[in-house]
Amino acid sequence: MTDGRVLFREFLRSPTRTATLTASSDALVAAMIAPLPLDGDPVVVELGAGTGRVTDALQRRLAGRGRQIAVELNPVLADRLAARHPGVTVISGDAGQLPDLLAGHGVERVDGVASLLPWAAHAAAPVSALAAGVLAPGGVFTQASLLGLHLFPPAQRLVRDMRSAFAEVTVVGPVWGNLPPARVLVGRTNH
Asked: Which residues form the Methyltransferase domain (predicted)?
């Protein structure tokens, strides 16, 4: 079964565990990973890895360097991702437990975190603060956000949370090549 069909089926089964009907576009994935510090041997984490669009791009970019960790709440998607990417540490778990999930795999600090988590995940746990807490100095957090919805209270709360967790927050986009169009929020820790 194709990734798109699995994603659709899993969304219908449990919208809160899957949170999207469509995979991210190449344009959105590129915008999400561009700010991440990927030189040398970085440790990079994905939150809400889904069908693995960011996973695929990071694997190509890292070319076997560093360590890649993907966190996915939906166990069906996590299992598919692990089968396709044996070189990636895939964790079937809740991003709200990020420090504990990483510690369970011997990781305390990471260089970058890319998140495709929905607003509900940010409402349930302080994702921005958790990401900031595991980032090494100079680390970067990227969060996808749908364009046009940035005026809604949950999106505004996400930006406020990022501004209180990170030394610098910028917005990349709009990314018109995504359906629906999106933007990327970029949080940076102090150097």
From this structure: 44-139
* pLDDT band at residue 1 using 50, 70 and 90 as cut-offs: low
CA atoms of 188 and 87, how far apart (whole Å): 27
What is the residue whose two structure tokens read 């437990």? 97
Beta-carbon contacts of residue 107 (< 8 Å; ≥ 6 apart): 43, 67, 69, 134
Tokens 């996808």 identify what position?
144
How high does pLDDT run on average in the chain?
A: 88
Instruction: Render pLDDT for 31-42 as a digit per residue (tens, 0 to 9).
Output: 999 999 999 999
- Provide the whole-model pTM: 0.89
Residue bearing the bigger pLDDT, 51 or 164: 164
Report the Cα–Cα distance between both ends of the chain, in Å, rounded: 45
Domains and CATH numbers, the chain: 24-188 (3.40.50.150)
- The span from the CA of 20 to the CA of 50, in Å, is 9
